[in-house]
């Protein structure tokens, strides 16, 4: 392989690894899917790359590691990868607890490796354009978001134990909070939170510069297609982002474009890096505590 190609090892062989990570890494001209390691070797063997027996073997063959595993598993492995000098592609949330997210972000910073968290919507061109329009306009006062789906009722991800345990807050909450934060400025607090059945979460958030937003999430409502809406409003009017025009696979290609550039240039900061993941984890932690009080 060319020296310009980043050798990536993939950890995990579930639906997201099969549908996005593996095909994306195989197709991208700047990456080689050099090794796969997963709990089920037979599933790993279907991803189109050599299967290794353990994580240490994978680290010995790659420049970077992409993770497609639950957050509780990702933390320790990603810390080990960063300390071994491997660049990391992390899934959200980056850890199962705030303490572990802090440990992971610190390990990435201390190692000086590149990192990107797969906030996949941030790499879709319509989202990039929407955020650029907002950034170039003054007068926003607040916003709202709705993400309502039946993903835990059936389908590829419905058997995921960590998604059932954490619900919509853990799985789609990072995407929603990331988008609201990017649109309206840094989220500073969760002033109200409530969880009811079926996995229905409602939040009131405060942002810097006195802006506020609300969010409603669920993954157990029979919505087909999934409803995804983010909007902002204020003196400048109203701007809405609806639906998902760009397939995840196309957004992942853009993510890999940016990731490989980081690796080759030595860049270690990015709008979706591990420290961004830590910021979102802090919001998740605050939101969870606020919901438990109600």
TrEMBL record:
SUPFAM superfamilies: Glyceraldehyde-3-phosphate dehydrogenase-like, C-terminal domain (SSF55347), NAD(P)-binding Rossmann-fold domains (SSF51735). Residues 6-117 form the Gfo/Idh/MocA-like oxidoreductase N-terminal domain. InterPro entries: Gfo/Idh/MocA-like_OxRdtase_N, Gfo/Idh/MocA_oxidrdct_glycsds, GFO_IDH_MocA-like_dom, NAD(P)-bd_dom_sf. Pfam families: GFO_IDH_MocA, GFO_IDH_MocA_C3. GO terms for molecular function: nucleotide binding; oxidoreductase activity. It comes from the Bacteria. Keywords: Oxidoreductase. The keyword DNA-binding does not apply. Residues 159-237 form the GFO/IDH/MocA-like oxidoreductase domain. This is Putative dehydrogenase. The lineage of its organism: Bacteria, Bacillati, Actinomycetota, Actinomycetes, Pseudonocardiales.
